[in-house]
Amino acid sequence: MELIDLTLIWIVILGFGVLMYVLMDGFDLGVGILFPFAPSNAARDDMMNSVAPVWDGNETWLILGGAGLLAAFPMVYAVFLPALYIGVFLLLAGLIFRGVAFEFRFKANRSRYIWDHAFNIGSTVAAFAQGAVVGAYIQGFQVEGFQYVGGPFDWLTPFTVMTGLGVVTGYALLGATWTILKTEGETQRWAWRITPWLIVGMLAFFLLVSVWTPLTNERVFERWFGNIEVLWIFPVATLAVCAWLYQAVRKRREGTPFVATMTLFVLFYIGLLISMWPYAVPPEHTFWDAASDPGSQLFLLLGFLFVIPFVLGYTAWTYWVFRGKVGNQQGYGH
Amino acid sequence: MELDPVLLSRIQFAFVVSFHAIFPVFTIGLAAFIAFLEGLLYRTGNPVYEELSRFWTKVFAVVFGMGVVSGIVMAFQFGTNWSVFSYSAANFLGPVLSYEVVTAFFLEAVFLGVLLFGRHRVPAGTHLFAAIMVAVGTFISSFWILSANSWMQTPAGVELRDGIFHMTSWLEAIFNPSFGLRFLHFAIAAFLTAGFVVLGISAWYLRHDKATASSRRALSMTVVLMAILAPTQLVVGDLHGLDTFKHQPEKVAAMEGIWETQEGAPLLLFAIPSQSAERNFLEIGIPKGASLILTHELDGEIRGLKEWAPEDRPHVATVFWSFRIMVGLGLLMIVFALAGVVQLVRGRLYESRRLLRIYTWMIPAPFIAVLAGWFVTEVGRQPWLVHGIMRVEEGITPSLTGGMALFTLIGFILVYSAVFVAGVYYLGRVMRAGPESFKAEDEDSGIAKRPLANVSTRLSEGDEPWGIPEGK
Question: Where are the transmembrane segments (chain A) (predicted)?
């Protein structure tokens, strides 16, 4: 096993899994965040129908993240979840309400507004909680041995509130560009209109995070300013992608804004990994400290290498099956 | 008052698991039923099967939705409340749960989208394939989760060093001693659950002269299957009990309410076990019955609970009564499934109004039986988290306070209650609309004839500003 670093392979696999989750559930959570601002009930129906066939598969990547962490980096699992106890509860409660809203909303008459709220609030709370998790990861945890020993609200700081709101804004941008791609008419016109504002909001948070993170975390400060000759590329690339996105919106290209927004998320994600590397449980434990037995990593790896291509294959296939605009004819008619 | 995080976490876990369990146990069987109906539809083209499949798929979607959201909670609850246990057992539980996600959850979730929304977007054969994949996914999922649970009952293939379980054999751990029979017992329970729901609902339609053709078909198909599976379950359950007797004798002692080690132990039909007095009150039993069943000898020895220290015993009354409820309901299912087949053979099933009424009344029975069985096996495992190796209080999250555990316990109870009440309400609406509202031609023609005419997907534009209920 000396030739192959299993832990490194698992960082790549789980990193990929989490990125898949962020990109895929990101846009359907974003649709939920934007829900109350939609111009009409018909627009809301369109938005919900555009994600109805795929949201469940998207969310499964989150469960994969949880189970995968337990399998490959149990220390991360055993520290993060207790440390974020209340936040995890909010995330789960949010996901529960928005999840059942898909089924219940279209079966309700007078109570439909309840499930509109459930979908919106649930999505927003879940997105915020995910952003706060990222903030808490940057902040670090109080750990003794392999267990969290801090208090229940250590994670909740102005910094994590900011990262939480940042992710809400980012997901909303993903949701808006997805809506551009999948709808037409009134709904799409509205999505065209709000996207530039969301880009501005996104950039504001990017600026805020860029200033605040190195001030919060000394290690990040050293990493960023010790490698400034390489790392300047991130803000420049971010601005370039934003410009590309804005141009695409101005020229009314339907697919490009979604792709550009996903590119932004990939950039942020890589930026986060580079800033935090190699710490799995900051400020002390690296990914290698947090790893499970090599035997367990290998046992699961063999299965993953075989199964994940199939998962990706049939997932891609369903997106293909449900390609195109959400029309009036194909409603929630299952 | 000092709040005990261990007790509150146990209550929370029991609540979340119990709530969650009733959905998959139903959807596993129902998914197979839907795949079967889709298969018949594909072969015969008979619209009765499409009507049935559409109707039960609608029911499936609501129940599956509730199952999924409550299941997500469980993937994280190990870490939030039982982080020491999670960390200790991660080498085994992590890969097993991950395999469940990649081999089962993705299959269910992704192909469910095609099953629900894709009937006219993919060829008929592909739609059938999606239905089969959903069914296969639910089944694979139960394989992994029961392996994980079974391992906590009869751990194997691992050794504990410095508080961490290290793998010695994957095969022994996954196929641990009690896994096979436990899985079979559960799988049959899942089919019985779905089957008796289908029986009960079909019987209700027949009694009310709704969807007569499809309900007759569903009734006769299902009653035969139930008449085969319900007695089979009795045999499998008995074998599973013998297996438990071998590996977890204190659990069986609690199931039978036996305190003193004895030869020729009676089979108690009724008793009020007392944990503190270490005996039963008001015993009514069949002499030598328990020995006969468990050892297949009239004078076989059964170890009593007093062989274990008081703190190592499960809560006897809970296990004892849960077991009797499970067995009692199981026997009822056998009786009425066989009665149904007798009536079917006599050609009188559809007119047997009393039997049909009983079927409708029995809809809750399999759910209660499953939960009771779950209590037997889980409460019977106490005080162990991993039987014989790690006690429950050793697995708790160290940073967890009683207040936090209470907060999330109340939170989950509120959230789940709201979801459950709404889910049952909307299920009732689907049921009242009935299979006839899912006739084949409805869906293509757009909004007006959409299933459940009162549930049109689009409200007319602008008649309801967001956030204000209709009619106000």
Answer: 7-24, 75-97, 118-139, 159-181, 190-212, 224-246, 258-279, 299-322
Of A89, A117, A333, Cβ closest to residue B411: A89
Give the contacts of B231 (CB within 8 A, at least 6 positions apart). B334, B338
List the single best residue of B53, B66, B83 to mutate versus A (max A Cβ within 10 A): B83
Burial of B368 (0-12, 13-18, 19+ CB in 10 A): middle
Substitution target from A25, A35, A318, A325 for chain B, most B beta carbons within 10 A = A318
> End-to-end alpha-carbon separation of chain A, Å?
50
Residue identified by tokens 């209340």 is: A86
The ipTM, to two decimals, is 0.90
Domain range summary for chain A, segments of one domain joined by +: 3-320
The pLDDT, as a whole number, for residue A280 is: 86
Among residues 54-113 of chain A, which lie with CB inside 8 Å of chain B? 54, 56-57, 59-60, 62-64, 66-72, 74-75, 77-83, 85-86, 88-89, 92-93, 95-97, 99-100, 102-104, 106-113
Which chain B residue shows the shortest CA-CA distance from A107? B455
User: What pTM was computed for the model?
Assistant: 0.89
* Distance separating alpha carbons of residues B343 and B346, to the nearest angstrom: 5
pLDDT of res. A334: 53
Which token pair is B191?
Answer: 């089919």
pLDDT digits (tens, 9 = 90+) for A23-62: 999 999 999 999 999 999 889 999 999 998 899 899 999 9
CB contact under 8 A, B404 and A152: yes
Cα angle value A303/A309/A313 (rounded, 5°): 145
Q: In this structure, which CATH number among 1.10.357, 1.20.1630, 3.40.50, 2.60.40 belongs to the domain A3-320? A: 1.20.1630
CB contact under 8 A, A318 and B98: no
Amino acid B151 reads W
CA–CA–CA angle B233, B236, B242 (5° rounding) = 140
- In Å, what is the CA distance from B359 to each residue of B189, B233, B413? 17, 19, 30
The CA distance from B137 to A60, in Å, is 13
Q: State how far the alpha carbon of A272 is from the alpha carbons of A15, A206, A266, B144, B417, in Å.
A: 11, 12, 10, 34, 39
Question: Looking at residue A144, what is its pLDDT?
Answer: 85
Question: Which residues 191-220 in chain A show a CB within 8 A of chain B?
Answer: none
